[in-house]
Amino acid sequence: MLAGTAPDFNRALLTAVITLGVPGEDSLLIRPVTSGEGITLQGRKVLYKGVVVGTYQPALAWSSLTVRFNERATAASITAVIRSLAYTNVNTVNPTVAPRNIQVAVSDGYGSVSTTSVVWIEILMPRPAPVATSDYYRVSEGQTSLVIPAPGVLKNDYHPDKRPFEAKLTRDTPVGHVVVGRDGSVHYTPQPGTTGTYTATYTNCDNWGVCVSETITFQVGGENEAPQPIPDHYPLKEHQGLFIGSVGNGVLGNDTDPNSGSGIVLTASLVSSPEHGTLTFYPNGTFLYHPAADYHGDDTFRYKACDTDNACAESIVTIAVADVDYPPYVPDIILAVPDTTWLTSDLLQNVINYDKDVLQATFLTEPTWGKLVHLADESTFSYISRSNQEGIERLLYQVCDGSMQCDTAAVVITVTNANNRPAVFLPAILSAREDTPTPLSDISFADPDAGNNPVRVTFEAIQTGSAMTAGTLPPGLSIVRTGSRIINITGPISSINTWLKEQGLMYTPVKDATSGQSIRVVINDLGNTGSGGAQQAAVSKSVAIIPVNDAPVNSLPGDQTMKENELLVLTGTKAIRIHDVDAGDARISVTIAATGGVLVVSPISGGEIGAGVSSLVLTGRLDSINAALTALAFRPTRSGAAVITVTTNDLGNVGEGGPQIVTGAIHIKIAATPAVIMRVTALSPDGLYKAGDHITLAVQFNHSVWVSQGVPTLGLEAGEGSQAAYQGGSGTPQLLFDYTVQAGDITPRLEYAGRQALLLNGALLRDSLATDATVVLPMPGTASSLKGTSYLSIDGIPPAPPQIMIPAHNSTIEGDILVMAGTSEAGSRVLISMDGNAIGTTVADAVGGWDYQHAEALYVGKHTLTLQATDSAGNTSTSSGVTTLFVTRGTIVNNEEDEHRATPRAYPVPAKDILFINLGTNVQTPLGIGFVDSRGITHSNADWEWQGHTLAVNVSSLSGGLYVLLLKLENGQYKERILIVR
């Protein structure tokens, strides 16, 4: 054994234990040497070169032993004791053939324990011989032969290795003859007439050829008597084993046989086993006994002794197991704990208490570096050291049983100044402004034992695109960067915390991110300070992003160049697009203003819609605004420089910072071109014009033109030869034309007659450079054409005179309501005159029918009626022919109380004389119909058909006039006044 780092071996402990063995057979001991230069024993004291270096303590049955060394022990003396350890097996006759495991270790008394040395011992039997026992046989006088069948002489023989063996005769009797079979059978023939004792010798040999011989005794003559066994008594100490390996000391050793005398030949067999132990019993009377654990007192077993004639007798064996008061065995307790950390242990946890006594544990010394607390059960204790302590705390303790037999050992506590784990402190909520470097000044670190020693802290922005930036470092701190997301700072904790507090570290989230951001902070104390190596702590934390309202972005095309007569369509590579990363579905406002031209709508099909505006404001969702911008175009109004300015206001959507406004401009260079017609429009208001009305039209050029030497005209699609005559505007960009609507003109939407409709008629049309203007008009129907800029309708055709229908025979009854009906142009206003005076007006419906009721009393006599129609344009028809009306005295069908319409409906008779009269959903299917005229005559011969609430009737047999329609129903009748107009 070599010395370690301990200053001495005082209280060192050597422990040797048989961990794999056979109880009752195995034993450990210290083998002393006779020389004074080695190991000697004085009682329990162990001496090395005559000096006491320790005391040994065997365990029960010597299956283990310990040696507690004193202050005079050295590495050399402990090595000598280890080399004096010896193993013995007390079963010298038939030991258990199995490997034994012995472990040896030494603790130095200061908390360190050597590695355990393991010794394996193989128990070998050197080919043991069979065990033979002499045999005795009696032959009656006059008996001619004796036959002993197998196993014969082998009955009381055995082999320790349980190997097979055979018998053979090696010496015959001097008188008579013996035959011994291989199976042990005996055939003896005595000499006739002889008596006495005669012996022979037989030999047992196993299959290894190992042999043993024994005697066979023949007693010729006399009577056989049973053996006389004597009780046996053996003393034994508690917890120890008893092996009786000698035949003379066995249970047969004191037994006698009256027949064989001193040549006793007996065989023992077990009758009953002991109750308080285990027994291995052999035929020659030897045995191995081991008492039960903790048993003391008498234990007995019975055996039977038999001679060769099978005459037997029983006896008892008593083993007196003495109660031995063994002291407890107390081992060292070796513990380890970091400083300032409580540990708890039990003084009795590994004590061997052989007698199961109540034990009392007591500390003999107090701690030097810490505090010791006894707990309630008085065997457990807790210990804690002071801060920053490191070394061995050794406390002696003693364990005693009720008889005050004691053993002393040590509690060896190795106190390590453990490196404490550092800590990271982050605020409960960690926030940063969107797209803004934010100081992480609320992060701090702590380490209870780092002091001013350096530590390394790591700051990592987790998401790709986020960043960590560091300001100027004070002396004592160093930095290592890994990309843009990781920063390592090394230095004292106090300096790092101060640097952070002074906003030395900045975190920037991923651009435009408002969620999903996080950081990771790690501190590694680099092993400062204490044992256990470097300690670190890591914390990952989500970062709450405070949204900042990002300014919108105007994506505009570059500067543009165009001709004066072109249209700049803002699509494709020339498109205006608005972007805003945080507006989402919120509303924004975009203002677009133009100088040097106007903004117009250009549909996908081309051209432009509307007269154009110099500015427009779009407010709404971003996607809707961008969709609207795809239809935007710019039309110049002059040559030179023009600018389209785009101003976007996100209205504060979304985030801190209020509304964000950005402005951009598209600069346009417009090349001058000869005067060209840009658009044609009407200066007269939109509406419907009649014959004789004047309409003023304007032909607009891209710049001023002058007219000389003639009068231009503008051909129109209003009627044959319709021409608008030039009225003025020379020297301006706009020439004025006048058109008077002619009788017969008609058009729902006025347009000029093609792109060449502007006729100069010999006139000169030139710009300021005396260059002839281009007089090609915009394509008819486009946004710049007359139809595209104005809504003018012309109706120069007067309506036809209205037609009138009055009651049959042009007569009516005095006092009755005069009901008239007729036809006129759809939508026209009908003026009715009687006797040269206007009596009323009515309007023809969509199919040209009209009716009128005159309620004023008419004098009896002859009256004249005339009609005149005025259409929606104001055109007036000629008067109709004169119709004569006779007012007479008499009667006519009155409005009866059950008539369903007091006012008659007028029905102009169409072709084929079929009237369709809708009577509504309340009228049931009629069973028959009739028409009652003004004279009270009922006409019921008309053909009719019911078509679901509509009556289709052939009125070819009826003249025009007022009738009462009579329907015969299942539950009554239905009446309605109608006027048939022919």
Brief rundown of the structure:
Helices cover 3% and strands 46% of the residues. The chain has 982 residues and is mainly beta. The chain folds into 9 domains: 13-122, no CATH class; 135-220, Immunoglobulins (Immunoglobulin-like, Sandwich); 232-322, Immunoglobulins (Immunoglobulin-like); 333-416, Immunoglobulin-like (Sandwich); 423-546, Immunoglobulin-like (Sandwich), CATH 2.60.40; 553-671, Immunoglobulin-like (Sandwich); 677-795, Immunoglobulin-like, CATH 2.60.40; 803-888, Immunoglobulins (Immunoglobulin-like); and more.
Kindly describe this structure.
Pfam families: Big_13 (PF19077), Big_9 (PF17963). This is Tandem-95 repeat protein. InterPro entries: Big_13, Ig-like_fold. It is a single chain. By secondary structure, the chain is mainly beta. The protein folds into 9 domains: 110 residues, no CATH class; 86 residues, Sandwich (Immunoglobulin-like), CATH 2.60.40; 91 residues, Immunoglobulins (Immunoglobulin-like); 84 residues, Immunoglobulin-like (Sandwich); 124 residues, Immunoglobulin-like; 119 residues, Immunoglobulin-like (Sandwich), CATH 2.60.40; 119 residues, Immunoglobulin-like (Sandwich); 86 residues, Immunoglobulin-like, CATH 2.60.40; and more. Helices cover 3% and strands 46% of the residues. The protein has 4 helices and 78 strands. It has a 7-stranded antiparallel beta sheet. Strands 53, 55, 56, 57, 58, 60 and 61 form a 7-stranded antiparallel beta sheet that branches. A hairpin with a 5-residue loop joins β27 and β28. The longest helix is centred in the N-terminal third of the chain and has 9 residues. The chain is elongated and about 200 Å long. The relative contact order is 0.05. About 1% of the residues have low confidence.
